Every structure is written in C-alpha cells, then in structure tokens.
Amino acid sequence: MPSEEPSMSRTNSDATVPPRLDTLVIGVTLFHLGSLYNDQSTMTFRRGMGTRVEIPVTGAFIEMADGEHILFDTGMLPPGWEGHAPPPRVLSMIANYGPQDDIRARLGEIGRTTDDVKMVINSHFHWDHSGANRLFDKARVFIQLSEYRFACLPDTFIEGPYIGNFLEKDRPFELLEGDRVIKPGIAVLTTPGHTPGHQSLLVRLPSGRTMIFTGDALSCPANLHPQTPPGNAHCLEHAVASINRLKMLADFLDGDLVICHDPAFWETWRPAPHCYV
To answer: What is the pTM assigned to this prediction?
Structure first.
C-alpha cells in the first residue's frame, strides 16, 4: 500500500509532470464506480459465511504522453442502458450506483470523455469489470484469449458473472496469450484463478513507483496470508499461485498493490480528480 503518497501524487490542476524515459505514463486517476453486496466467504475462503459486506467497484484512467490514454476496467453498465437490463440476480447485488458512478460522469470529473480512451484493458469479463465496455466502441480492448474463450462458453457452475448480452462477441479484440508489455510503463500480467484468463496490470509512474492493479486476483488484503485465499476462485490452486506472483512482484519492485474490491479501498486511495504520478 502507498507509504509516501505526497511524493507520488498531484491534482489534475497541477502542471503536467514530464514522464520518465522508460515510461509513457503521465499519471493515474482512480474512479469510484459504485459498490456491490457480497458474502464475506467469497472474499476469504470458508470464513465469514452469511456475513454481508459492501465492496467498491473501481476503475483507473491512465494518462499517456502519446495521447493513447488507457482505462483499466470499465465498471458496470448503467441499468437499462439501451435495453440492456441486467438480470434480477445482478440488480440484487448492487449496493450503490448513482448517476455520478457512471464511467462517463467520472471521466467528466477530470475533463475527459469516452472518446479520450483509446485502449481498454479488462482484468476479466465479469459484468462489474467490463459491463461498460459498450460505451467505448472506438477503443481497442485488450483481454486474454483464454478469458475471451471462457466468457463465450463458461462452465455452468461459474457462468453467472458473465452476462451474454453485455459481451460484444462480434467486436474485434486484442487477444493476448500471456504477459505482454503494451507500452513503455504499461504491462499486463497473467494472474489466472479467479477466472481462467484473469490478468492484472503493472503501471510505472513518472516518479518511478509501480502500481500493481490486482483486479480480482486479490479480493482483500487478507488474501495475502497463506491461510486465507479468496473463496470465489474458478481454480483455487491457480488463484493462490497468482497471489504469490503478485506478492513477489510487489516486494521486488517495491510496488503498491491496488486491490480493486478491497472494502477499505477508499480509506487507502484517493478518487478522482486526484492523480497519482
């Protein structure tokens, strides 16, 4: 978690910080995109069954020096958008979602629109991470090939979070097969377990710090302890291996793990219009 926030942050009103030569990243802004109800046991394996917790839905806008700005996860599709109403089981999970939590509204807070997003990188295709992809029809979407295949035909016991009418199967995707440097300072890291093709994101800031967006590879900080893996993994063995990989990278790079569904997320991180540099 961030230990020296003042040295790696600025507001969007500050002058643009020149990027380091080894990164095109200018800054990262975090978005609050609503919240969901979840059972504690889905976050901590076999612990807290029957205890309802509220978890944030988050996204990140990455400003790039070359103008090809990136969005990591798009959040939920606004309910009822152009007839795409989520099923009742999904609506029952939404704890809070107002007009201000629409990804378009959050982009507006920093003077951006959907047209400014040139690349979308989804951690995976669950509805709370990719539901609003439809709003970015001009952006290139990066996803693991294994995740795309699984989302099109998921195992029946885990198919609930994949909503068919939200997944544009005829849209061209940038299908990745493993780890990939997308741009200087931006790399995707395969972290399967939560889903077969889950990926996390490494971002090198101009300050030299590294932000590691875990997606759902980590549900909460408790998962960093060996005896408390997440409880909603497609494959628990792969999930634990991915957690260990993220821990190692965070230690090696002295990086900050951004645990996207951490219930205490906004106690640690600052939302838009704040910008991390």
So the answer is: 0.90
Single-letter code of the amino acid located at 119: M
3-state percent breakdown (helix, strand, coil) of the chain, nearest 5: 25, 30, 45
Tokens of 120: 């979308």
Domains of the chain: 5-276 (3.60.15.10)
Rounded CA-CA distance 256/234 in Å is: 26
Cα–Cα nearest to 201, from 192, 189, 210: 189
For residue range 81-110, what is the model confidence (pLDDT) as tens digits?
776 777 788 888 999 999 999 999 999 999
Residue reference for tokens 């990027």: 19
Please enumerate in sequence order all residues whose Cβ is within 8 A of that of 272, keeping only pairs 6 or more positions apart, or say none: 12, 29, 30, 31, 32, 61, 106, 109, 110
The answer to whether 39 touches 48, Cβ cutoff 8 Å, is yes
The DSSP call for residue 245 is H
Residues 6+ apart with CB under 8 A from 251: none
Cβ atoms of 256 and 268 within 8 Å: the answer is no
The pLDDT tens digits for 34-72 are 999 999 999 999 999 999 999 999 999 999 999 999 999
Beta-strand runs (E) in the chain:
9-11, 25-39, 52-64, 69-72, 94-96, 117-121, 140-144, 174-176, 180-183, 186-190, 199-204, 210-213, 256-258, 274-276
Query: How many residues appear in the chain?
Result: 277
